[in-house]
Amino acid sequence: MQEDASGISLDELRVDEEELRSATLFPVSIITCETKFVKPVIDVLQLKKDLQNRIKEKYAFMVAERKKFKEGFLEFHSSSDNILNCYFAKESPTKITYEANDLRLHTERMRLINPSFSVKIKIVLDEESANVIMFGGSESMIQRALLHINSCIRAVIKGGHVTIEPGFSKREMNTILKAFGINVEYIWIHPGESVRFMKTIKKK
After folding, report:
1. Rounded distance, CA 96 to CA 101, Å?
2. Burial of 132 (0-12, 13-18, 19+ CB in 10 A)
3. Residue 66, burial from CB neighbour count under 10 angstroms (0-12, 13-18, 19+)
4. Where are the domains positioned within the chain?
5. Which of 29, 54, 128, 131 could pair covalently with 124 via S-S, beta carbons 3.0-4.6 A apart?
6. Are 132 and 119 in contact (CB under 8 A)?
7. Using an 8 Å Cβ cutoff, are 104 and 90 in contact?
8. Which of 68, 108, 76 lies closest to 92 in space, CA to CA?
9. pLDDT in tens for each of the 204 residues of the chain?
10. Concatenated DSSP letters of 170-204
């Protein structure tokens, strides 16, 4: 990394991962969405390849027109033949302040990917549907990522489709909680369109 005026490289300020302390409270949004295919898919592996190519073609991580910072999908990898993993992220200007062995404060402005502007995505495909699960990021980031993913899914399938409203069963929620372990402070569930649920939340 480039050295500053004092001759120190920011590489010298790096720490091992185990040195990092976890945040006292870090909000994580989770959303799921399912698209059912009217016409079953014969080759799921080919569908995954077509979907990944479509996402990269339309929404790859890059600087869009009239924008200053990169936004889009990146870090593609597969955990199995029918699962596609990736991230949707947006760069944001971040100021870092550090000391360079001279008892003075130095600042650098860098283009970084903040966790609030990063969404982890898992797409599970089979012959009859595509399930999208998203973790992290702000609500607006998740909604934008989901909109792009769903448009790409619909573009690569033949025939019609039905998109099912997002939601989690009790079993799915328990699975998610188990994955997070004991580090869950609390859970807030969006009431959606349920008037009764809204009244319950207002009372709480």
Report:
1. 16
2. buried
3. exposed
4. 30-174
5. 131
6. no
7. no
8. 68
9. 455 555 667 677 677 766 555 555 556 677 888 999 999 999 999 999 999 999 999 999 998 778 888 999 999 998 888 999 999 999 988 888 988 888 999 888 888 888 888 999 999 999 999 999 988 878 888 889 999 999 999 999 988 888 886 666 777 777 766 766 665 666 666 655 556 655 555 555
10. HHHHHHHHHHHTT---------TT-HHHHHHHHH-
Torsion sign across C-alpha atoms 118, 36, 175, 188? positive
Closest-CA residue to 4 (of 101, 113, 111, 114): 101
Sign of CA dihedral 14, 18, 19, 23: positive
**CATH assignment, 30-174:** 3.30.310
Closest CA to 44 of 156, 131, 125, 158: 125
Say which DSSP state 132 is in: E
Name the pairing type of β-strands 70-80 and 62-63.
Answer: antiparallel
User: What's the pLDDT score for residue 132?
Assistant: 93
Determine the Cα–Cα distance for residues 55 and 59; give it in Å rounded to an integer. Answer: 5
Q: Give the chain's end-to-end CA distance (angstroms, integer).
A: 50
- Provide the token pair at 183: 């580090």
Q: Which amino acid is at 29?
A: S
